[in-house]
Amino acid sequence: MIKRKTIGILGGGQLARMSAFQAYKLGFDIAILEKEKNSPAGQLTQNEFVGWVDDDKLLKQFAEECDIITLENEFIDADRLKFIESLGKRVIPSAYTIRLIQDKFTQKKTLSKYNIPLPNFMEVKSINDYKKISTKLGKRFIIKSRKMGYDGYGNADVMNETDFKDAYKKLTNRHSKLYAEEFVKFSKELAVMVVRTKKEIKTYPVVETIQKNHICHTVISPAQISKRKIKMAEQIGIECVKAVKGFGLFGIEMFIDEKGRILVNEMAPRPHNSGHYTIEGCITSQFENHIRSVMNLPLGSTELVKKYAVMINLLGKRDGKGVVQNYPESLSEPDLHLHVYGKEKSRIGRKMGHITIIGDKLNTTLRKAKKMEQKIII
Fold first, then answer.
1. CB 95 within 8 A of CB 74
2. Can you give 112-152 as a three-state secondary structure string?
3. What is the reported pTM?
4. Furthest-apart CA pair in the chain: how many Å?
């Protein structure tokens, strides 16, 4: 009798939840490891392991339940992934790849070896480094945590030495190691999803991302840039994945600066906020191709099903229960696709879900999406 294969996912948030839906669609089982019970992805499976990767006994139990293991974020220590690999289980992306990505200074050094275009950057070694850094990067620059930075957490804009010292103290409380990066004046922020197996590598449409309080808020697919720049962004994304010997799904964020150059901001080895539109917007969603790539199966088409897709994140508008409070108004647009992540608690600014609208006219599609985002209360 052939046993149904089980895919383990480290992390139980919305990215794991949306990946789990696609795994079930393809006939696979899912196991989830998350710190708290009843996580968004844990709600979907009986194979819910509560705890974390620092517990050897629990991690062994989890690994025994799984045929292959993936993850929903890059913050899991690479040594813990190496421990799983030592148990004879394959992890996609591998511990090697995660080690090159999760420390963003190491990530930047790795990409620079392959001549991938990046903002200028350098290591921050002490609270007295302002003059040395400003000499190289200019008076205004950004300092960032090397690990555990996301949605604006772990970043600080520096304009002078006082800013630098204040930011240094604040950020080293989050993570002890920092790096500095030149401040980029950009005309657009871009992103591209890249998916890779042993036999194939594909890109999704290059999109424009618009931030709100450092969180990706609106995604427009495809980005309204020249075909030449689209090709450049696709190729840069592919080179980034190859540079870290990556397999699976990756999101690569980029800038177009004032000079028209495309520069890589950072990459993430997992489904990405900028790819949520693909669920309805593309023939095969990023989440389905995530599962296909983890299982080393043939990849599905990444083509758009209509000319345009617009995705807007639903950020919490009040503190309280993580439920939609006005379904009739929230579903009043017949072209709307609503996704609610199943988080138990909402707080102002927290990602609680997203909406997508696809269409043949960009202005109409964008206008509908913006109007609906304002209506929905979570």
1. no
2. HHCCCCCCCEEEECCCCCHHHHHHHHCCCEEEEECCCCECC
3. 0.94
4. 68
